[in-house]
Write a structure and sequence with these properties.
By secondary structure, the protein is α+β, with helices and mostly antiparallel strands. The protein has two domains: about 160 residues, no CATH class; about 260 residues, no CATH class. It contains nine helices and 15 strands. The strands form three sheets. Strands 1, 2, 3, 4, 7, 8, 10 and 11 form an eight-stranded antiparallel beta sheet that branches. Strand 2 and strand 3 form a beta hairpin. The longest helix has 14 residues.
């Protein structure tokens, strides 16, 4: 039975909640230390040499329009403003993360640790028009965010992820026209963190040994910033290959000793005016869809518009199953999509296997952004009894199903076939088995007395745990309630969890709170 508690407790908690900081550019933070190794090889035992090779750990990113002081000589010194001819994107890793070495994708060399023992691999996908039905990937889509985020124990919330996330390994290969549409990511451009694309490394500071280390600054150059492959078959862009828009860009890698993070930065022209300034050209070239001369986001998007506008109404390309990726660009204006602060991003990073995987797996993923709430299987932003029931229902439905369960019928567990290539969002401990152990791992956020609701009884426990965790009864110790009170999923119970708890208590949406991250202290 619920006992009455004064409303003052709720007000006290709300008054402690941290307030967001207003910034000129968009900043999103990621919990430090939230990494988990999510292998993708079919036996789930590929050697990643952890902890000798550190797990790439995202700490956040910032993005916005940018004006360099002198674009021809230094892209990275300047100011954030709403009229900049460039966009700047910075993302960070905890401690030292090395540029990625080649994985023998485009050459025979397999040398992931070429630039140091802690390389970071993965993708940054950018939706520039906030239209989920434009853009997407027909190449390497199984290696992207939508195809892998559920390995981390939940479905991310937000309308752009509705009916888009692969909750099981087999979902990834359902095809372009079948749910969950993982190829229809909405991406216009991506950054590819793969050493096979690196053509030049320039050490701006360091000891010259070819290893990125504490306190060093490097430029990593190559075709690392690529327009979505899904556009290529319909685009008139000059390539190569035909239809591709793949400029040569510089990614700057800086180790920031004061924050103990590795900062990776891209500054790229939004407009042809910006491109001319960067190249030191006196004249601005017209939009020609060619990335090998003056190039910009404006030109790349204008090419999409031109390409679809140029197709006659009866052109067979309009009947192609992939055409919906580009169709909404018809009669659009590129200048309407240059506000980088409005772009939607997803990040997926991981570590390489020590030796090439015989089955072709490239990475063991370690971190994502946006993070799903652990145990949130329907993407509503929180964990409810429905999520707990979903695991139990999955076990009941698939125990003994030979297409899913490789174990014994009636043992109240589902042994996933071909794990970890084939995964399940319900496998919270990522052991290849969905069982009662996973049911117990689903935390009903805010239910600290384990009575399947969130009420004022839980407020008293939350306050005690927040202020004096040692005072908790041994039967309700902090270790037991932490997964249910850790609203921002950073492994700690502190003031940053208060707003989430208050929201749960009053019936509002539960979303991660502000997270302390060194990235937030960037100048």
């Amino acid at each position: 039975m619920n006992s009455p508690r004064p409303a003052i407790l709720v007000l006290a908690l709300a008054s402690l909640a941290m307030q967001p900081t207003s910034r000129a550019q968009t900043i999103l933070l990621d919990p430090v230390g939230d990494t988990e190794i999510r292998r993708t090889d079919s036996s789930n035992d590929g050697d990643v040499a952890a902890p000798m090779h550190a797990k790439p750990d995202l700490v956040g990113y910032r993005i916005g329009r940018w004006t360099p002081d002198d674009a021809a000589t230094d892209l990275y010194t300047g100011v954030w403003n709403n009229t900049g001819e460039f966009f700047r994107f910075d993302f960070g890793f905890a401690l030292v993360a090395n540029p990625p070495g080649p994985l023998a994708l485009a050459a025979p060399d397999y040398d992931p640790y070429r630039y140091g023992p802690h390389p970071a691999f993965g993708w940054v996908e950018i939706d520039m028009d906030q239209r989920i039905n434009t853009g997407g990937e027909t190449f390497a889509f199984a290696l992207r965010y939508l195809a892998n985020v559920a390995r981390f124990g939940g479905k991310p919330s937000g309308i752009r992820f509705a009916n888009r996330v692969a909750l099981f390994g087999d979902d990834v290969f359902n095809g372009f026209t079948q749910p969950p549409f993982v190829q229809r990511s909405g991406e216009e451009f991506h950054i590819a963190l793969f050493g096979d694309h690196i053509t030049q490394v320039i050490e701006l500071s360091g000891n010259g040994n070819g290893i990125f280390e504490w306190g060093e600054s490097w430029i990593v150059r190559g075709p690392l910033f690529h327009r979505a492959h899904g556009y290529e078959e319909f685009s008139f862009a000059g390539g190569p290959p035909p239809g591709a828009y793949e400029p040569i860009v510089d990614l700057r890698w800086d180790y920031v000793p004061s924050l103990q993070i590795t900062l990776v930065s891209l500054v790229y022209p939004l407009t042809q005016n910006g491109s001319a300034a960067m190249l030191g050209d006196a004249e601005v070239e017209p939009l020609n869809g060619v990335a090998s001369d003056q190039n910009s986001i404006e030109e790349a998007l204008d090419d999409l518009i031109f390409s679809v506008n140029s197709l006659p109404a009866n052109d067979p390309n309009r009947l192609d199953q992939n055409f919906p990726i580009i169709a909404p660009w018809e009669n659009s204006l590129a200048v309407n999509f240059l506000n980088a602060g409005d772009w939607d991003l997803t990040l997926l990073v991981g570590m390489a296997y020590v030796n090439p995987d015989p089955g072709g797996a490239l990475c063991a993923w370690t971190d994502v952004q946006p993070d799903p709430v652990r145990g949130d299987f329907n993407g509503d932003g929180g964990v409810t009894p429905q999520d707990v029931n979903a695991v139990s229902n999955f076990i009941a439905s698939h125990d003994g199903d030979g297409t899913t369960d490789g174990g014994v019928a009636g043992d109240l567990r589902v042994d996933l076939l071909d794990f970890a290539r084939n995964f399940s969002v319900y496998d919270l401990n990522y052991d290849g088995v969905v069982s009662r152990n996973d049911v117990d791992l689903v935390p009903l956020l805010g239910d600290l007395d384990f009575d399947n609701d969130v009420d004022f009884d839980d407020v008293a426990i939350f306050i005690v745990a927040l202020i004096s965790p040692d005072a908790l009864n041994p039967d309700s110790n902090l270790g037991r309630i932490l997964p249910r009170a850790d609203f921002n999923s950073d492994g700690l119970l502190d003031a940053r969890d208060i707003q989430g708890f208050v929201n749960r208590l009053i019936g509002g949406p539960v979303a991660p709170g502000a997270i302390a991250s060194p990235f937030d202290r960037l100048e």
